[in-house]
Amino acid sequence: MRKFIFCIILLTGVLSAGTVTELLQEELLTASSDQLIHVLIKPVGRVDLDYINSAASGLDSDARREIAVSAMQNFAEYTQQPVLSALSSFSEEEVKDIRSNWIVSVVGCAATPEVIRTIAARPDVEWVAIKTFPNILIEPVENREATQNELSKANAWGVDKINAPDAWAMGYEGQGIIVSIVDTGVNYNHIDLHNQMWHDTAAGFHYGWDFGDDDNDPMDESGHGTHCAGSVGSNGNAGTSCGVAPLATLMAVKVGTSFADEQDVWDAFEFSVENGAHVISTSLGWPQSQNPVRQTWRETEENILAAGVIHAIAAGNEAGNPSTYGDIRTPGDCPPPWLHPDQTTIGGLSATVTVGSTTNTDALSSFSSLGYSTWQFDDTWNDYADTSPDIGLIDPDISAPGSDIVSCDYSNPAGYTTKSGTSMATPHIAGCMALVLQANPYLTPAQVDSILEVTSIDLGAAGKDNYFGAGRVDVYQAVLAAIAVGTESNSNSAVQDVTAILSAISPNPVNSQASFSIYMPVTGMTDISVYDVSGRAITSIHSGEMVTGSHMFNWNVPETLGSGMYFVKATTDNGTSVSRMTLIR
Questions:
Q1: What CA–CA distance (Å, rounded) separates 122 from 43?
Q2: What is the dihedral of CA 556, 562, 563, 564, to 10 degrees?
Q3: Which of 221, 286, 442, 458 is deepest in the core (most CB within 10 A)?
Q4: Does residue 84 carry a pLDDT above 60?
Q5: What's residue 59's pLDDT?
Q6: Is the pLDDT of residue 142 over 70?
């Protein structure tokens, strides 16, 4: 497969000094001069998602993933390098534990108050926030031994309720679909799970990765992750079929039990995306009372969507009031890949499909967190307002069985246990996503989401609501709908006549150097030139043959060029592409 080189950044506004968040300001007031405070540092800028989506248009899922991952990694490297260089200039007594992420461009470290203030004052830093270490595991509201009556059934009740056996009878059991379980790990020796576990021995990964201990042994030590994995892919070898997709491949990505910080979870998402997961299942989340830095999670979920991956996330077990926002945990409060027609207040999209919980009588589980959510107060987006006639973001998106769920017991490799919570509902939806993608592997996350929502059993008030979402999932009907969409491959030939694509210019405004990338769908002669507002050609950046793929340019602006608006124009045999920039001297 082609290897692409990317560095795509979308910067808006004139650069100014970063900010210190309110919680960190409070910490700084009482901290001693030599105290090391764990912080997150956000460099200015975001990856250009429009560029990724344009460059990946018509490509298959593997090619899209490669383009997106390369873009994000190079973007992070480009924007973080000045910050990392600045941090490295301090002593180990002043800064330690430096680490970075690319699924959202963030640098983490432990630093003294003086270092934090120095870094926050940099014009290439958007903000610095305190890093928290809460327990983000969405703990089951009930955890008990499975009863003899429950164990006497061939299938767990939730599997039957959503009509998974009917999909199995058609030959769809999740074969070929990788589901990443981002949780407390998985007992990969459980009889129901062992044969389905993902592994990549050539790279040294066995079943997944443990980001808590930073090793390749993601063994579960608490039970939550094994139970969730069972609801995705238990094959019933020990006596009870608990998994919606019993032949799906299960990737165990452990993030801690006591519990992980934000960067551990981002590490887990990066591992999942980079190593080929088609679906991510996450029964974790930050209650709003713990003040998550929501912007980082919205950006993360948008980037996961750009990579072509769909993400099932638990709503939370806080119940709540559907007339107010804030009861859905983050990142479950991020938008879905597809907006239901009842979602009359519109906004941006992300990979998140938020999951509520139902009982065996199709009642709403008493603990299931209720929407709505809003992003009207979060800069960059400021969408999904709730002021009438706006209704905010409807949450959850969909519901699944989550009360009294029988699944795999981590402490007994041939045993089962019963738990209740939206944590248990979420892997049911992840398993449904696996079956739908097996039935039609060319579906986008938006199509998978729309199919699951439209074919669900409407419960409660008519339409999508803040209790059940679109309804309780029916995977058999979803598989039928996926097949009906058609399975025509989006091959590379679909984009052979598409013109070159330019990314946004960065930074913008420009002072001395302008960076941009160009994607060439086919090899051909290409001219890249700069023009002023009158259409007069100022200079040529490149002229000649350019091969298929993505190419990065760093153009040093001539000192003779004055302030004003300019255009970078790429001309090929198939047409032109233009990006605008403002030069400020």
A1: 9
A2: -100
A3: 286
A4: yes
A5: 85
A6: yes
**Both tokens assigned to 308:** 């072509």
Q: Quick one: which of 432, 449, 483 has its CA closest to 248?
A: 432
Say what the pLDDT of residue 10 is: 44
Return the structure tokens found at 511: 């002072």
Q: In the 8-state DSSP scheme, what is residue 570?
A: E
Strands 178-183 and 279-282: parallel
Q: Which domains does the chain have, with CATH numbers?
A: 19-130 (no CATH), 142-485 (3.40.50.200), 498-583 (2.60.40.1930)
- Name the DSSP letter for residue 157: H
CA triple 258-260-261, angle to 5 deg: 135
SS3 state at 10: strand
Say what the pLDDT of residue 490 is: 42
Q: pLDDT tens across 487-501, in order?
A: 644 433 333 345 788
Q: What is the full DSSP assignment across 13-31?
A: S-----EE-HHHHHHHHH-
The per-residue pLDDT for 487 is: 61
Sheet holding 501-502, edge to edge: 501-502, 513-520, 549-556
Give the pLDDT of residue 450: 96
Do the strands 352-358 and 199-200 form a parallel or antiparallel pair, or are they unpaired? unpaired
User: Can you read off the two tokens belonging to residue 37?
Assistant: 């405070």
Q: For strand 564-572 and strand 575-583, is the pairing parallel, antiparallel, or unpaired?
A: antiparallel
User: Per the structure block, which two tokens stand in for 177?
Assistant: 């679909």
Q: Strand 405-408 and strand 352-358: pairing? A: unpaired
Res 207: pLDDT:
96
Contact indicator for 574, 500 with CB cutoff of 8 Å: yes
Q: Is the peptide bond before 396 cis (omega within 30 degrees of 0)?
A: yes
What average pLDDT does the segment 155-166 reach?
Answer: 98
- Helix (H) / strand (E) element for 484: namely helix 475-485
Q: Is the pLDDT of residue 552 over 80?
A: no
Cβ atoms within 10 Å of 485's Cβ, excluding its own? 15
User: Please, is 144 exposed, middle or buried when counting C-beta atoms within 10 Å of its C-beta (0-12, 13-18, 19+)?
Assistant: exposed
CA distance 50 to 55: 8
Q: In what order do the strands lie in the sheet with 142-145?
A: 142-145, 416-420, 405-408
* pLDDT value, residue 258: 60
Angstrom CA distances, 426 to 181, 218, 228, 296, 340, stand at 11, 20, 8, 22, 19
Helix (H) or strand (E) holding 185: none
* Angstrom distance (rounded) from CA 156 to CA 213: 33
In DSSP notation, 191-253 reads TTTGGGB-EEGGGTEESEEETTTTBS----SSSHHHHHHHHHH---TTS-B--SSTTSEEEEE
Q: Which pTM was predicted?
A: 0.88
What percent of the chain has pLDDT above 90?
A: 75
What secondary structure letter does DSSP report for 87?
H
DSSP-derived pairing of the beta strands 549-556 and 564-572: unpaired
Compute CA 206 distance to the chain's CA centroid, rounded to the nearest angstrom: 23
Taking residue 383's Cβ as centre, other Cβ atoms within 10 Å add up to 18
